[in-house]
Design brief:
The structure is a single chain. The chain is built from five helices and seven strands. The chain has helices spanning 2-8, 23-31, 45-57, 102-115, 131-139; strands at 14-16, 61-69, 72-83, 90-96, 123-127, 144-149, 159-163. A four-stranded antiparallel β-sheet has the order 1-2-3-4, covered by helices on one side. 25% of the residues are buried. 31% of the residues lie in helices and 28% in strands.
Length: 168
């Protein structure tokens, strides 16, 4: 997997704080259904902007994720994170935009864990339906397998805990 890991880190993914200029990308993703499980459908653009600003104000860290596309960069998702364990780590959550490919998701996940995980321990609680993807990430040796947590997401909805070995 080392050779494949090198391929996944060749294209440089950009993780940067979300700013006002990103609202058009967030709005486009919302209109395509990205946050239907969290946000009310049919919000006006102003209502959406206000809601997003409030939501981002409630998290400790936020990143717009951009990948090389054509002659520039293209946003493909948002990562938010909360500080955990008295500041000894973060628990991230990613919202992929509908146009993010499986390759984009794998590249971003591996590079996020390598780059951000270098400075802070990352704690992941992975739902059962996402196990196949995260097992693939685990194969690149950027996270350590922890344990099964019964009822982590409600009765009958377990999670598998992973973490990064960092900070280094």
């Amino acid at each position: 997997m080392t050779r494949h890991k090198e391929r996944l880190t060749q294209r440089k993914v950009v993780f940067r704080p979300i700013d006002d200029g990103d609202m058009r990308w967030l709005w486009a993703a919302y209109q395509m259904g990205t946050w239907n499980d969290v946000l009310t459908e049919g919000l006006s653009r102003d209502e959406f902007s206000t809601t997003v600003v409030d939501l981002l104000g409630a998290v400790h860290h936020d990143w717009m994720v951009e990948v090389p596309a054509g002659k520039g960069l293209r946003p493909i998702g948002v990562i938010t994170a909360m500080d955990r364990f008295a500041g000894h780590g973060i628990e991230p959550h990613v919202d992929w935009f509908p146009w993010a490919s499986t390759r984009n998701k794998l590249e971003v996940s591996v590079q996020f864990l390598l780059k951000i995980g270098h400075d802070v321990k990352i704690h992941l609680y992975i739902r059962e339906e996402d196990q196949k993807f995260w097992h693939r990430v685990w194969q690149y040796k950027v996270i350590k397998n922890g344990c099964k947590i019964s009822g982590c997401y409600g009765v009958g909805h377990d999670a598998i805990y992973y973490n990064t070995p960092g900070p280094f």
